[in-house]
Amino acid sequence: MEWTDRIRHVKIFLVVAAVAIAVVSLVVSNSLVRELADEEHNKMEVWAEAMRSLNMADDNTDLNLVLKVINENNTIPVIVTDASGNVQTFRNVNLHGETFADSMEYASTLSRRLSDEGKEIRITLGENARDGYINVCYDDSVMLKRLAAYPYIQLGVVMLFVVVAIFALLTSKKAEQNKVWVGLSKETAHQLGTPISSLMAWTEILKENYPDDELIPEMDKDVKRLELIADRFSKIGSLPEPVPASLKTVMEHVIDYMDRRTSSKVTFIKDFPDNDITVKINASLFEWVIENLCKNAVDAMEGSGTITLAMARTADKVAIEVSDTGKGIRKKDIGNVFKPGFTTKKRGWGLGLSLAKRIVEEYHKGRIFVKSSEIGKGTTFRIELAG
Question: By its UniProt entry, which Pfam families does this protein fall under (predicted)?
Answer without folding.
Answer: HATPase_c
